[in-house]
Target: Glycosyl hydrolase family 88
Amino acid sequence: MKKIKISGFIFIVSIISFFTSCKSENKNTVAEESPKEMAISDSLKWSERLALTLMKEHPEAYQIDGKEEPKWDYVHGLVLTSFEELYKKTNNKKYYDYIKGYADATIDNTGAIPSYKYENFNIDMIEAGNILFNLYDTTKEEKYLKAIQTLRKQLSEHPRTSEGGFWHKKRYPSQMWLDGLFMGEPFYAHYTSKFEDGENLDDVAKQFELIQKHALDSKTGLLYHGWDESKAMAWANKETGTSPNFWSRSLGWYAMALVDVLDYFPENHPKQKELVSYLNQLAEALVKQQHSSGLWYQVTNMDDKEGNYLEASGSAMFAYALAKGVNKGYLPEEYKVAANKAFDGITRDLVKVSDDGEVIITQACAVAGLGGNPYRDGSFEYYVNEKKKDNDPKATGPFILAALELNK
Model:
């Protein structure tokens, strides 16, 4: 009888264990639900809502911008820089892991970057190096340092104008574009501050001085997209060398470059006040062009000329630069109002939210440039007819950065 009771007890325990195990397995299955199937809560801040959207759509960070194979590119660097700031804010390791996953997919164990072509001297390729400083500090893995040093070597050998300005690319000789200031200078400033005791900060500042000298329009306070020292390009003004129009995203690149390089200029550095003055000058000019919605047009000063449209990436970049400029004490508080107005305009007019909470930024220019083949002439018609792309990384990265600066 005693034996039967024990057997029965064992049987009951086994049944309970079976159901407990099933329940546990079901619980784990839910916890490990594929990111593709997860809904994104609207109780989160905009920064996390968009970051989770991107991770859901692109499980591997190298897939951002539709890439099928790992590729070293500035768009990934831009978005992952915003993830780095998000990680600092939330301490959620999944954002750090997403960044590291990209670095490990694009950099081999020797520190080489297989998809990067050094000989092209393309300043765009420097930008993604910004994510490597923290990875190296955190892991002390030598491969990250080797990659950082390769990018620094490119800058040391990069072709320059007669006054010392970095060409945009080897295949665009004698040209400086506003884009290039963001692509190269924050990395350069960070590197020289960290590894060279800041000895090349004057060279960093020189890049901005040259752009101010050659690309600034004294009437509007805006800067032209590009400048050709040789004046040989068909798009270049034969007297000044400047391109014909003001493009909001190029101005956004420049504004972000200013607020980001200032992170590495001590207040007592002779060039710090100069850079702050450029930022204030630009902020004043930009706010004059801000639409009542809070947004900016694709061609910045053409208002509602037929074909022009209120564009997402430039507006997000301006929101970030203005907000950070105020937060860092470079700009007067009034510019925070303009930044908030811009961000609210984006979320109200340009953002769609899907049924499962995914955030989609619309009205983002996919790409624009000067010269090349097919030829890009920098005309109004050229800029407004370039294709648009939802959740283009040139909009998503700055949107997350702006959201963090504004605590939205």
User: Anything to note?
Assistant: Residues 2-31 form the longest helix (30 residues).
